[in-house]
């Protein structure tokens, strides 16, 4: 059975960046995120056994959501060094995946979430998305599930419809309604002032959608906070009409030989050993990144 594995590139890279020591090459460029990203990918391939693979990154430029709401994501990491480290490693990873023959998508004006959503909803094969972003729970259905890292770079769990309900208290199709009510501090949009997670879950259990809560619940906070909630719902909703088309013939999972070849070029000794059991001797982390000793 064919299975498409989609990596939420920025989400996975951020987790890898903070999970490992601050490794840098001789030019002072951060490289740990690349190693951690590939380590997580290798574990996912070993565990999930996908037949197809695609990687999606954000673009550094503002998206349509920033145009919709001036405060969108203004609370994100402002540290210039961290920002440079992350985006520098995005470019390195694009080079790595080009060498592996894995397609990478990044669409201006759209977030990676929208590109992932478009690919996932158009796919006729089973889809698993690797991400740490709970926003993507709204995409989960009988054909789409998430693989969410839990601790460091090693553990992850499959999130299906029941797991979304267990974790958030609402079904995947209600995630945007939930966000409309409670907002999202990480993306810096407000929701309805005075409505917390427990109240939101109870309201949605009874009235199913944000619009029905507004019309039928009689909750004065929701009535007064309608504009903030309506804006938050539009910001939370992942679009599935991004201008992207997945060519299945170009996204088959690379062979063991191809992946091993790239890992050897990078000098990632431990990853080569995981792939083949082969010990390799290198003085640096390959001609690409020149990091000693992994």
Automatic annotation (TrEMBL):
Q: Is Nuclease among the key words of this record?
A: yes
- Could you tell me the keywords of this UniProt record? DNA-binding, Hydrolase, Nuclease
Gene3D superfamilies membership: 5' to 3' exonuclease, C-terminal subdomain (1.10.150.20), 5'-nuclease (3.40.50.1010)
GO BP annotations listed: DNA replication, Okazaki fragment processing
Q: Which GO terms describe its molecular function?
A: 5'-3' exonuclease activity; 5'-flap endonuclease activity; DNA binding
Query: Start and end of every 5'-3' exonuclease domain?
Result: 2-254
PANTHER family hit by this protein: 5'-3' EXONUCLEASE FAMILY PROTEIN, FLAP ENDONUCLEASE XNI
Q: What is this protein called?
A: 5'-3' exonuclease domain-containing protein
Q: What is the lineage of its organism?
A: Bacteria, Candidatus Amesiibacteriota
């Amino acid at each position: 059975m064919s299975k498409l594995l989609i990596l939420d590139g920025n989400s996975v890279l951020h987790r890898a960046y903070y999970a490992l020591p601050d490794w840098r090459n001789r030019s002072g460029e951060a490289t740990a995120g690349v190693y951690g990203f590939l380590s997580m990918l290798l574990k996912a391939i070993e565990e999930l056994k996908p037949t197809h693979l695609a990687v999606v990154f954000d673009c550094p430029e503002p998206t349509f959501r920033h145009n919709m709401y001036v405060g969108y994501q203004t609370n994100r990491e402002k540290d210039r060094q961290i920002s440079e480290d992350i985006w520098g490693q995005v470019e390195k990873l694009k080079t790595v995946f080009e060498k592996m023959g894995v397609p990478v998508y990044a669409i201006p004006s759209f977030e990676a979430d929208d590109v992932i959503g478009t690919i996932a909803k158009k796919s006729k094969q089973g889809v698993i998305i690797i991400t740490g972003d709970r926003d993507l729970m709204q995409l989960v259905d009988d054909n789409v599930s998430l693989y969410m890292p839990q601790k460091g770079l090693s553990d992850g769990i499959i999130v299906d419809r029941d797991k979304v309900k267990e974790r958030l208290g609402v079904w995947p199709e209600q995630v945007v309604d939930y966000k409309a009510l409670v907002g999202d501090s990480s993306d810096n949009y407000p929701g309805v002032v005075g409505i917390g997670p427990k109240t939101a879950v109870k309201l949605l259990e009874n009235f199913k959608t944000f619009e029905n809560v507004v019309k039928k619940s009689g909750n004065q906070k929701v009535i007064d906070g309608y504009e903030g909630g309506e804006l938050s719902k539009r910001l939370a909703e992942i679009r599935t009409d991004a201008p992207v088309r997945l060519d299945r013939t170009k996204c088959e999972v690379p062979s063991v030989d191809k992946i091993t070849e790239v890992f050897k070029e990078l000098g990632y000794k431990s990853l080569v050993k995981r792939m083949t059991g082969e010990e390799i001797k290198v003085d640096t982390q390959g001609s690409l990144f020149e990091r000693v000793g992994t």
